Amino acid sequence: MPVTLEQIGIVLENIAPVSFAEDWDNSGFNVNLHNTDVSGVMVCLDVLPEIIEEAAEKGCNLIISHHPLLFHATKKIDSESYEGQCVRMLIERGISLYCAHTSMDSAPGGINTWLADQFALTNRCYVQNGTTEHFYEVAVHTPRDHAEAVSRAMALAGAGTLGEYTECTFRIDGKGTFRPGLDASPYIGQGGKLETVDEIRISSICSENDLQKVLCAIRNVHPYEMPAISALRTDEPQCVSSGLGVVGDLPEPSRTTDILDRLKEILQTDSIRVAGEMNGKISRVGVCGGAAGDFAGAARNKGAELFITGEIKHNDYVAHTDIILVEAGHFDTEKCFCQLYAQGLQKCFHDVNYNIAIYVTNLRRPYVNY
Fold it and tell me: Does one domain contain both 126 and 272?
């Protein structure tokens, strides 16, 4: 069965939602040729004329890149410029372009998570928090003999999950009173007569994302015609669901030179740039792919003693002498994107039974050599 570009767009949101992207970014569709069926997908780091040709030769009419083709505000399309040439080639060959830039940097399981995983970092936090999801306290009064059914339905809908704990509730016994109207259909009692019932108040925490599912689950199993439900947004806890950069603890303190050797092995590169004292041992490390030298101070504030990124400006080296700075190259710190995104896309296609070929372009070497 054909799969439309719009259907694919929904799947892409499951991997790295555009809402995770920074305001200054241009993640999402850069070229959207609507009302087309997707014949194949090509994943790349950058959009280049040769990659567009490669996609066309392989029968792909959707390219997914990490870096946006249209990044800054565009006032004209010049076919002799890099952007204009690529746009013209994409349209002529009927290829749409989707870019997952800071959305994939910030997503759990994205580039920065991959970098942190290579060093087995624990006790993690984001260098810069992204999307923050609030929690709600949901409370409902139910007859005693329905308490377990209501509580179970709430849990299955996502309520009561905090970290490694599930089915967390608080219960209070009490007396409920109500007077059904003459046209009501009460589970207990008679119209016009005041009733007193032994009830249990069940309260539980749920995420903002799960709130409507929890409310629906309660109503589906609750015996009352009009159950009394309250939902109050809490200041704490909060769930940070995305962020840029990761800081975490190494499994054990390591010499700086050993960390750098491990980094070159991970990135399969022969050279990196380092500033700072290299004789001691490091316990806590920060990572952020791409150009994130301006995050050095924030990483230090989160306890990082060494910060790895792709590009660092001279001023950042000057301003942050209290942390070891490692510049490993924009290309090398982000080249993992292609395999990461292709694997995530393959899983999503499998889950929804989409039979579409996915190709990863042969990565070129960095544009700058040392």
Answer: yes
Q: Give the domain range for residue 195.
A: 132-240
Whether residue 317 sits in one domain with residue 180: no
- Considering the domain architecture, whether residues 25 and 60 belong to the same structural domain is answered as yes
- 3-class SS shares of the chain: helix, strand, coil, % to 5: 35, 30, 35
Q: What is the pLDDT along the chain (370 residues), one digit of tens a residue?
A: 799 999 999 999 999 999 999 999 999 999 999 989 999 999 999 999 999 999 999 999 999 999 999 998 888 888 889 999 999 999 999 999 999 999 999 999 999 999 999 999 999 999 999 877 789 999 999 999 999 999 999 999 999 988 788 999 999 999 999 998 988 888 888 888 999 999 999 999 998 889 999 999 999 999 999 999 999 998 877 777 789 999 999 999 999 999 999 999 999 999 999 999 888 899 999 999 999 999 999 999 999 999 999 999 999 999 999 999 999 999 999 999 999 999 999 999 999 999 999 999 987 776 777 7
Does pTM surpass 0.90? Answer: no
Question: Distances in Å between the alpha carbon of 118 and those of 56, 192, 308, 310, 337?
Answer: 34, 68, 12, 16, 14
